[in-house]
């Protein structure tokens, strides 16, 4: 048996209860988050996944300019807001307020989004030839 399959089969007991893996809690409605950083990590990585997906769509579509960036910002912030306020129903004040959760990992996801657009944009060969 490999170590990864052993890890999946292990049951971690903390204070008499069974601890769920982080990603199973992330997709479970109203999960209990023992550690503040664990939930913030989930928010951060969900934001990165959303950035890659939207970057691919925007690069292929191609949505450009201020409108494309504005739509990305609204979708990115909106999806995460719905996730933590409606799906997980966490107490935002425990994590520093709604604004702190909404901006968690935003700049990194924005950079990832822009890189995706650049590499998937049909205009890329023209840009590279100009250099």
UniProtKB/TrEMBL annotation:
GO cellular component, one term: endoplasmic reticulum membrane
One BP annotation, GO: mitochondrial respirasome assembly
Chain ranges passing through the membrane: 42-61, 66-86
Topology within the bilayer: Multi-pass membrane protein
One Pfam family in the UniProt entry: EMC6
First-listed, main subcellular location of the protein, grouped into a coarse class: endoplasmic reticulum
Family in the record: Belongs to the EMC6 family.
Matching PANTHER family: GEL COMPLEX SUBUNIT OPTI, PROTEIN C20ORF24 RAB5-INTERACTING PROTEIN
Protein name: Respirasome Complex Assembly Factor 1
Species for this entry: Anabarilius grahami
Lineage: Eukaryota, Metazoa, Chordata, Craniata, Vertebrata
